[in-house]
Specification:
about 700 residues, alpha+beta, Beta-galactosidase, Chain A, domain 5, TIM Barrel, Immunoglobulin-like, 3 domains, ten-stranded antiparallel sheet, 39 strands, about 20% helix, globular
Length: about 700
Amino acid sequence: MQEYIRLTSPVNDLILRTAPYPEILYFGEHLEQFDEADILSLGRAIPNGGLDVDVPLTLAAEHGRGNFYSPTLEGHRNGMDWSPVFQTSAVEFEKNFVKLTALDPIAGLAFATEFTLDHNGVLKMRNTITNQKGGDYTLDRLGITFPLPDHAEEVMSFYGRWLREFQPNRTLLKHGAVIQENRMGRSSHEYPPILIVGEPHFSEQQGNLWGFHFAWSGNTRLRADVRIDGRRFVQFESLLFAGEIVLAEGESYTTPWLYTTYSSRGLNGMSQQFHRHVREHIVKYPRPCPRPVHLNIWEGVFFDHQVEHIIAMAEKAAEMGVERFIIDDGWFIGRNDDFGGLGDWYLDENKYPQGLNPVINRVHELGMEFGIWVELEMINKPTKLYQAHPDWLLEIKGYDQPEERHQYTLDLQNPQVFDYLLERMNWLLGEHKIDYIKWDMNRRIVQPGHNGRSSLDGQTRAMYRLHDEIRKRHPHVEIEACASGGGRIDYEILKRTQRFWTSDNTEALERQKIQRGMSYFFPPETMGAHISSPQNCSTGRTLDLQFRGLTALFGHMGVELDPVKEAAEKAGFAKYIALHKSLRTLLHSGNVVRVDTRDETQLIHGVVAQDQSEAIFCFVQLAMPEYLLPGIFKVPELQPNATYRVHVLDLPTGLRNGTSGHLMKKYPQWLQKALQGESLEFTGEWLTKVGLTLIHLDPATAILFKFERV
């Protein structure tokens, strides 16, 4: 048996010990030279004050081996076989894939780990436990344990809530553990399954760090821990309720995939590696085409659906350059507010007396795709479906389960429920020329009981199966994942969808930081980013169209408004839609770059083409600046020996009119010349190492730059 295995990429390497037990020895910067003899340098001393033998942090992190910290596996067989110790029994190795299987014949358990490292430097791994002897094995926990070096001392986790997703939080990892648990029944607004650990003060552009994404749309536990001997590790697991997984002889349970990468170039390097992996291996489109600009009617009409008005909205949308028109909530029977209707997936003939096809046909005549909203996992009690099948709820009988948004969850593990929803979607997608569905999930799950037993894991897997079956039968239809905005955003659901609704909060000032947080793991083309009405319905703030337009530019663009009622903004919306279309090939294929700034009121972010031929960057002023002079913008990741022409693509209204606004008496010379139409050219080296002097902006304004290689 080969004792050591190396998986390698141009970015980083993984070195595994295979025998006598499976252990990760190294995951870090790519090694140009490697000799198994070098592993001698990693041998650990055995200090006083502990066991008399070295205790490795194996993949199973067994307590029975002397690991006194959180193990990978917890379970028992009627109180027995609760402290296994695994020894490697088989190794499968081919190119950049390896599977290690370890056995404990006393406990009657097999523990297997799979690894795959792609050329982008993204490693994915998962564990499987198999019951190999008679008697049921109750699985309490099965996660993934990943060791980190001792200089990984800072944790960047993410928290949030409805209307405020993907907020970063930093914690020093000196002693004890940082634990993040999510019991919401979905990957959640509150604690999404992502974690970054690195050397202290890592930033957008600098530092060594490890990024982790646990691809699961259910409950999760994330842990970053430091042992008293200084060794550090992280753990990721699907958080199981009591008795949720019981394995009969021969049965197995497999964890979700963990995706990780190492970056020596700060958060930007990590993001770019993850983004390339997502583009190549995770998100799949029914047909290759640019991401179409959306108009969703929700913020325009809410539940008030009138066919003539909706067709007029579509006509105005087409004039603005919209390419996909979506009817949101309110099209089915009983859905005049959020108290009823969910589950009764039949057309409301009072609102649509001639059916959906007159609207769909007109949308297609206008050259747009047609989309529609559903929320298949949910039910309201004032519905025909609940009256006929009150036993279809995911619940524990006898309890008064609390509502959220006046709705409950259907038990997708019930074959009758699954078949009913599939039949309704076959009707909707089979009888209508629908190109796109927005699949929502507007509540957290309380007491997920299937036949009285805890079953959130089963509910999540059944949801995946429903997605898979719908996609199999209707492969031309794209799907947007939505859960009150950003409540279900992860790589596993992205394998079945093409777009996320990032947040129900479409207000540009809040969206700047929400979208930045999401950008760490997800490329722009998966991030729904819409221009909303002047006064936003989430915050009540009124913001200039220029700022709203540039904020929505850096994602999968759409608009949220009634273009009939808000005709005054039509030309402005059309302008930013056209600007987005002119840039989206770059936006949706290039490297996302975020720039470190000394002033927290300022954000600079952009996208650089893979071949460095062009780049766009946005300088954003969130609030009143900290200093009188805003400093210099050093443009990162350009080709040093090339010459670039600088374009100012968009400015706040006051600057476009040639006035100085509130904060500047005189503009920087280069900007004066640019506003006068002069051509400005600098070398990539000069722009990257020296840079451009910036101008002070009013709060909630932005400037858009383009750099074009001559």
